[in-house]
Amino acid sequence: MKLSRDVYVANTCELQCLGCELAPYVVYPKANTHTRVYDIYGGNPLGSEAALQYIQTLVKQDKQIRLWTHGHITYETFVTLKPYIHTWCFYAPSCDEHEYRTHVGNQEFNDYVAFLDQVKADKVRYAVHIAVTKENIIRLPDDMRFIRQKKYPCWIHYDKTQFTIDEQNSIHYFERYGDILVLPLRKGYPEGSCRVPLGQGFSLQWRLLVARYRSWKAKLKTRWEV
């Protein structure tokens, strides 16, 4: 039984991220009886009315929705959809104001942070997710410092084929802190979409279980070292 299922549902997005090429297709598979959690991704799924109807249909069939989007939706939209979304996943290409704006286009990092603070105050399930690349790994300590200061739950993901063992270890170093999980990918990211830790035939639900176990071990080891 597959614990979760990845569904590419929208090819629209308000952002213009560097290197992003959304796929020119939309898929709405029927709900599977044995699948509990559906990962909805692809640009900004909230920009499609059909995607919203699809999400509502899945919820009526007692499915849980994990929605992958950016942090520039309106708070009113967030409140409207809150009853339908089990977990919100917000993309953060960088936690540096200048780098963030350079990457996503015209949107401001301060607006993104203000929105996340509202989400945090609403006490819903959410996570900020960061894709680590060869270009931005040097900024990861600063990004994690910001995440820890704000106490945001964070999922770090990366393509294992792009990093040395030492670099991978430096990424996993941060899973000992707070609510930070690290999700290594063996074959890169889904084609034609923003960078999300999905695809490859593995359910994210299983990846998260493994990541939480690794994080628990890292925290325990750190405690004993102290």
Draw up the topology in text.
Layout: E1 4-8, E2 37-41, H1 49-60, E3 64-69, H2 75-81, E4 87-91, H3 97-104, H4 109-121, E5 126-132, H5 140-150, E6 154-159, H6 165-172, E7 180-185, H7 204-225
Parallel strand pairs: 1-2, 2-3, 3-4, 4-5, 5-6, 6-7
CATH fold name: TIM Barrel
Percentage of β-strand residues: 15-25%
Please mark out the parts with pLDDT under 50 across 5 or more consecutive residues, or reply none: none
Q: Which structural class is indicated by helix and strand composition?
A: alpha/beta
Structural domain count: 1
Please state the overall shape, judged from the principal axes of the Cα atoms: globular
Alpha-carbon distance between the two ends: 41 Å
Described by its quaternary structure, the protein is single chain
CATH superfamily: Aldolase class I
* Physical arrangement of strands within the biggest beta sheet: 1-2-3-4-5-6-7
Total strand segments:
7
* Total of helices: 7
Helix content: 25-40%
What is the H-and-E element order? Answer: EEHEHEHHEHEHEH
Q: What is the averaged pLDDT score?
A: 85
Q: Any idea what the CATH architecture is?
A: Alpha-Beta Barrel
Radius of gyration: 17 Å
What is the CATH domain class? Answer: Alpha Beta
The main pleated sheet reads as: 7 strands, parallel
